[in-house]
């Protein structure tokens, strides 16, 4: 009888605890994983710079070789070229790959990107951005968190499981143009929906951060409409000594227009912009109230004096569940060091509006265009304005009660011994909504980045803890998916 009780307890313990062999294997290989990340970070795959496009392409081929080493079937899909500054610049290929052994088992598709934002040491980095540097448990370098480290964590998880048993079929979609709009990927997803995606059951996007040091799952993102508003004055730049005070200056007109968009509290002043916004549910409000988000720490890390809201849940909801408008810069005005007494002939203001569910980009574009034209008419300037929306990305919201999210929660519980934080993010990852709309499959954002990783900024990093435990998380997720 005692033996039977012992065996029963042993069985229950084994079923509810992680596979120690797999997790120990990941721990043993972590130095190898960090070295591989160092090799990937060293490739300056900045997709915004035409002169570095070959580096992006090289990065895609390196990832393809890594997948082949995992015995994946790999296709590098060529997307042609794009016109930049009057030249044809090749687009990097998209990787479509798969490890499929049992059609009776579910198939999960992971998405990630291998291009990065621009980075220069002289911009304020404390380390060389393309030379992975470990300090105080953090791995510093461009792309560590966004998104090379997260992609590698998935591949390392698959590699480890293959030594034992890969519990499900796995597919991969990796691109090299995410940071500049995912050129060509949306059409490719539509073209391959009936082939590559036909047997995919779940889609997991590995390109997000946690709200706090507690692991979390993202179930929604904001969309984005990015605008250029151009003001044209004289045909060429003028001398301020000769023309100052007697002409309508384009820069003054532009600053006037930009100043009418949003008030000092962040409230957007464009009429009708909030009409379609649905406030977060009571359940969501509770998610944010229970979050371990540390506003004081974030302020210290980024040098922010104060947020526009004081309550933690208000900060989190305002940056993810409501629209926001940010002014990004002015092109054409004098911005170099020193002095230059010039009146620019043409200037372009750049701003974006983050959209939330039910806000349609086409409606927002009309609202912005009508409002700016009305305000410019009030200025009574003879100058000419043009308004163009250069990015249209829809928001995304998923069903958190589905089986994929159940598996994600169980995986986090298994690895971190805690319930995950559930949240929406304020950023825009357009491919999430596109995957869901085109394929009709459940999508989940399961990232492993920390809240202070500073992707897109100076000193981007990924902690070694998140990198290694995140690898275990993806391994646990694949194990949980087989039981759905």
Automatic annotation (TrEMBL):
One of its GO terms (biological process) is proteolysis. GO terms for cellular component: cytosol. It comes from the Eukaryota. GO terms for molecular function: dipeptidase activity; metal ion binding. The keyword Transit peptide does not apply. Keywords: Hydrolase, Metal-binding, Protease, Signal. InterPro entries: ArgE/DapE_CS, Cyt/Met_Dipeptidase, Peptidase_M20, Peptidase_M20_dimer. Residues 219-378 form the Peptidase M20 dimerisation domain. Residues 1-16 form the signal peptide. Belongs to the peptidase M20A family. This is Cytosolic non-specific dipeptidase-like isoform X2. It comes from Pogona vitticeps (central bearded dragon).
